[in-house]
Amino acid sequence: MENIIKLNQDGSLIVPDTPVIPYIPGDGTGPDIWNATRLVLDQAVKTAYKGDKKIIFQEILAGEDSFKKTGEWLPKETLDQIEKYKVAIKGPLTTPVGHGMRSLNVAIRQELDLFACIRPAKYIKGVPSPCSEPEKIDMIIFRENTEDIYLGIEWEAGTKEAAEALSFINARTSKNLDTATTGIGMKPISEQYTKRLISKAIQYAIDNNRKNVTIMHKGNIMKYTEGAFLKWGYEVGKNEFKDNIITEQDLWDKFDGKAPGGKIVLKDRIADNMFQQVLLRPSEYDVIAAPNLNGDYISDLLAAMVGGLGLAPGANIGTNCAVFEATHGTAPKYAGMDKVNPGSLILSGAMMLDHLGWDRASEIIHKALQKTILNKTVTYDLARQIEGSTKLKCSEFAEQICSLME
Ligand code: NAP
Fold first, then answer.
1. Residue 296 a catalytic site member
2. Residue of 223, 272, 333, 359 marked active site
3. pTM, whole model, 2 decimals?
4. Which residues pair with 143 in a beta bridge?
């Protein structure tokens, strides 16, 4: 039992020195990036703690490998293991096409109620970026992971269900939607799920000395879903965190635009404006809290601004457990070629170490990765953009990072 991570009453982790952490290597290029990541994580923990701590990685099944071995894409045993050990890490998984299957990644998030999809976007020096001042980008997105369009409630045009839903809408409104030719999707957003997400985002800002939290929404058009997300977000700020936050309104009305020390500014931006804000004034944004669909879009935009999905980490965190994962897909055309960039999963692994409270090991990874990139020793995706670079295989890139750890 001493290898199992436990939870305190307040939700914080009690981490043994040798925790078992389940892993899913993933499909396609997943095994390549997982092997590289495992090498880096083990070496960083060894360098940081000189053998006093070590992760016991334990494989669990999901995806194509699981289907071949068990006939199931996502066995219940896998979800049980993640719940038992509280923290897991995974490579990308293929979404089976034509099996009527929803995405396995979405299924894992929903089955385990991993309600916050957390995606940091911080520039790493030397990575080619389409932005002129990428060093100003240091944001973290908290995307709601369980409702909004992720619930997948939609009916195809021409079905009985779509016609029934449309008839209901026609009867209750002045709309006259064509019940035979119109498809329909639903966008449920609830008070309790909004509040737990925004509470997590604000708590993160407090714990990490961030300056502001921005609620991203399209409440001007979708008043009772995204507008409610905004309203409930401010309620959380004012009720749960009244000693820690001031609103942007207060900032100007009471403090002449300068936030008093230790106070976090809670502000909001309409989604379309948010896109131009992060591009044009990135240094003004720190933590962004968004409903599911907005969060999806803004996460990938920010990842592109700091150099692409190959280096974008991510985590899905709930009340009882957390899964850290590469944010890109399986890149199947490169499967087994030991070619792709393992950076996304490596940085997700570093987030996992932070989550365990093993910050020293995480810092070692960030520094060694930074040096590796500044040395221009990189995988194909970066090599094709960096003049004078040396192209490394996926495994060589990991070995290079390990060799620069101190
Ligand atoms: P993808 O696997 O992300 O690959 C698209 C392109 O992105 C690749 O061809 C490659 O570009 C680049 N890329 C992806 N990973 C890279 C890496 N580690 N290093 C360097 N470049 C990388 O997207 P997809 O082809 O749309 O999806 C393939 C499968 O993955 C699908 O089954 C999809 O459902 C699944 N998927 C899974 C997840 C997940 O598990 N979280 C997420 C998204 C998609 P170049 O061709 O330019 O080299």
1. yes
2. 272
3. 0.94
4. 117, 290
Write the residue with the smallest CA distance to atom 16 of ligand 1.
Answer: 310
Q: Which atom of ligand 1 is nearest to the CA of 103?
A: 34
**Given the CA of residue 327, which atom of ligand 1 is nearest to it?**
41
Give per-residue pLDDT as tens, 241-296.
999 999 999 999 999 999 998 899 999 999 999 999 999 999 999 999 999 999 99
**Which residues have CB under 6 Å of ligand 1?**
33, 92-95, 105, 309-310, 325, 328-332, 340-341, 344, 381
Which tokens hold the place of 142?
């908290």
Reference 26, options 91, 99, 94; nearest CA is 91
pLDDT category of residue 96 using cuts at 50, 70 and 90: confident
> For the chain, what are the domain ranges?
1-117+311-406, 130-147+189-305, 152-186
1-117+311-406: CATH, from 1.10.10.10, 3.40.50.2000, 3.40.718.10, 2.40.50.140: 3.40.718.10
Q: What is the pLDDT of residues 129-151, one digit of tens each?
A: 999 999 999 999 999 999 999 88
